[in-house]
Amino acid sequence: MLETEYIRNFCIIAHIDHGKSTLADRLIQKGLLVEDRNFQDQILDTMDIERERGITIKSQAVRIPYTAKNGKEYVLNLVDTPGHVDFTYEVSRAISSCEGAVLLVDATQGVQAQTLSNMYLALEHNLRILPVINKIDMAAADLPGTKQQIEKDLGLDPAECIAVSARLGTGVDDLFEAIVAKIPPPGGTPDAPLRALIFDCHYDPYRGVVVHLRVFEGRLRRGMKIRFMSNGAEYWAETVGVFKLALAEEPELSAGSVGYIIAGVKTVSDVRVGDTVTASENPCPEALPGFREVKPVVFSSIYPVDSNDYEELKLSLEKLKLNDASLMYEKDSSAALGFGFRCGFLGLLHLEVIQERLEREFDQAVIFTAPSVKYKVRLKSGEELFVDNPAEYPEEAKIEAAEEPYIRASIITPTGFLGNIMTLCLEKRGVQTNMTYLDEKRVELIYDMPLGEVLFDFYDRLKSLSRGYGSFDYDITEYKPTELAKLDILLNGKAVDALSQLVFREKAYDRARTVCERLRDEIPRQQFKIPIQGAIGSQIIARETVNALRKDVLAKCYGGDITRKRKLLEKQKEGKKRMKMVGDVELPQSAFLAVLKTKDT
After folding, report:
1. How is domain 4-182 classified at the CATH fold level?
2. What is the pLDDT of residue 44?
3. Which CATH number fits domain 195-279: 3.30.1360.40, 3.30.70.270, 2.40.30.10, 3.40.1180.10?
4. What is the third-level CATH fold of 485-596?
């Protein structure tokens, strides 16, 4: 049995694109977990979408054996985490299963918004923080400047900083030694009643739910009867093991270990991320604290393209929720698209990732409606309600006032891009509350702005305006009064409820124009004209037309009287009018996706 003093549990936290996955690759190679001929970059990123976009979406655990310079053999349990602001919840779950954190800072970009927020997250959990400066091999690397930022912005000792190049492997041996020397071993006694925290899960079609857990107290053996404390469900632990890139079986997991169990769990809803696992015969007195409840900020409805696939979509969402605990969903229906689900996401990137995972991993053809946030509406009757679905928005005459959620946005940018970024924030109705020069090259801007304005294109435009150097982090603060309007999209005079949106009244015209123009390009031409209209109540504020496919009815007329030609044209006109009255316009899936895009994309 492995003694706890030779175990180290740590995670790698950083801002997006500071080199977490590359550093994890080097640690895995040094630990000889994979032969060089089988190695590939971003080895812990198991999803195609992660490799394509070069981002980490899921935190992944791996066990690395290491023989220290003092000759003792250690086991290092590493959890690689995402860096994007949308996946902070994923980071918080990884942090709760560790005693230490490697805080990675890019030598070319310095301390950025997510570096700060992830460090505060680690401090909340009393983790030992190890500052590491990456990308020292780059021509633009500024090692003294980065150390100064670490001391000034993060309050960490610059003398403790370890300089590495994750790409070349420089300094990785020093990092291993620092992890062993400075990160404390896990607490907990193997002889106490079993207490283990579920920090992740995934679904195996042959073996059921694979539960990822961190054992805090006691032992977890193969063949043991276990209980999930949130619902009392009991199972036999068929297989117990650890993560060595692939799943590796072990006879038992003891206090301090990170591993997995397979217990033949086929009822997906029995397993909850953040739950505590204990033994049925000798249960622990109380559950572990688990995680803070996640709050979705972006809402959108998902519908299957074929309404017969509804049950399959429901099953797919259940399995996906196992692997992504931050996904929230409930049943929904639409006159245009049938039955579906109303889902809550942590941001727009989260929404895109869920869409791609449903299509790739579960082979689901789905349609997403335009995303919205949760608005607070006060009716004249005195009643207050929260509305995130345009279909539930009350009539204008009944509404006393409406409020929308605001965020406190923290933007760190090089000073050269300051003007462009301030213009962008003003355009998004942001109000500047603070501006701090962190040093002669970088400035931090604090803005209060509506969450709804950040949804569509804010992050992408911030990145392009700052040439990739600007960073963004936000916290939801409060609700503030707003002028709301429900924008309806009419096709051939009929409102399509799945295309309705709740928008800021002053921006309704621009949004309506954009949607109508995009639909005009996506909807296939019919035998009759199709008007596409944007309306607020009974007032039409934008219009585009899809022209009809016309047959040349005069082709057979060679000369002859003009009245003959006029008669044929009038006859065609009547036919078109009749066709328009009975004709149905089918919306392709690409039309719904086009509505989600912005003017620039």
Report:
1. Rossmann fold (3.40.50)
2. 47
3. 2.40.30.10
4. Alpha-Beta Plaits (3.30.70)
Q: What is the pTM of this model?
A: 0.67
88: tokens are: 């902070």
Q: Are strands 366-368 and 328-334 parallel, antiparallel or unpaired?
A: unpaired
* Residue 348 reports pLDDT greater than 80: no
**Residue keyed to tokens 């690689």:** 80
List the chain domain ranges. 4-182, 195-279, 298-368, 375-482, 485-596
Backbone angles phi, psi at 281, to 5 degrees: -75, -40
User: Which string of b and e fits 49-71 if b means at least 16 CB within 10 Å?
Assistant: bbeebebbbbbbbbbbebeeeee
Its CATH class, for the domain covering 298-368, is alpha beta
Give the residue among 27, 115, 151, 144 at the shortest CA–CA distance from 79.
27
Lowest mean pLDDT among 33-47, 443-457, 537-551: 33-47
pLDDT tier, 582 (very low <50, low <70, confident <90, very high otherwise) = very low
Please report the pLDDT score of residue 577 as a whole number: 62
Spatial CB neighbours of 115, under 8 Å, sequence gap ≥ 6: 14, 15, 18, 103, 105, 154
For domain 375-482, say whether CATH 3.40.640.10 is its number. no
Across 71-228, the runs of DSSP E, i.e. the strands, are: 73-80, 100-106, 128-134, 162-163, 195-204, 208-217, 219-221, 225-228
Name the residue type at position 138: M
Cite the DSSP H helix spans in 31-87: 48-53
What are the tens digits of pLDDT across the range 157-215?
888 888 888 788 788 888 888 888 888 888 878 888 888 888 777 777 788 888 888 88
Burial group, residue 468, by CB count within 10 angstroms (0-12, 13-18, 19+): exposed
> 3-state DSSP: the chain helix, strand, coil percent, rounded to 5?
30, 35, 35
How many CB atoms are closer than 10 A to CB 204? 10
